[in-house]
Amino acid sequence: MDRLTALATRSDAKTWWAPWANVMPDWFKTYVGLEGLADGAFVSESMVIPGLLQTESYAQALTLGTGFVRPDHAERFVSFRQTRAQRLTDDDPLTLHAVLGEAAQRLRVNGDETRQAQLAHLAAMSELPNVTVQVLRPEDGPHAATPLGKFVLLDFAHVRPIAYTEVLDGAMYVQDPDGVRTYRMVADNLRQVALSPAESRALIRELAGAA
Predict the structure, then answer these.
(1) What is the pTM of this model?
(2) H or E element: which one contains 98?
(3) Which of 38, 93, 118, 158 has the most crowded Cβ, counting Cβ within 10 A?
(4) Which domain holds residue 157?
């Protein structure tokens, strides 16, 4: 964990999110610092749209509904998430590959208007050259991530990759090369099983129209 702390608290990793430090759990600060230094991220998420791809209204409804932060911190946390999402469109953007369960697109969050806007935003973001989105449908059958839930693989230019997964009140970081390799094998399996990026975008737009 010392290596992670050293990376996450480097001045270039920490500066941007420091104004929101008091609205985030300590274990999440480590992840945010690491994400800020990463060149690439693979995200597997079955139930919700990942934070980097959320609209403001979706993020607000999800933050209030899940109780991830205190109610009086919700507005500032949503502001943090919107600033964090700029990592995908800045001058040196993060390369993101997200595999999302179809349930994440169907989850009813604050009514149809919020969901429709979120899906339209997701489809638009998937057209960026540094963003790939794939959808995993129930009919695609079991896959390597079935027992896992959400996980993230972070790749860096000059240090070893890290796998990250969340538990109810914290997070687990995998640094061991063999452990990271296992998560990468799962990520490769998800890429193969899920709809192609083009098919996924078409499905997302179809679901947005039906919202």
Answers:
(1) 0.90
(2) strand 95-101
(3) 118
(4) 2-210
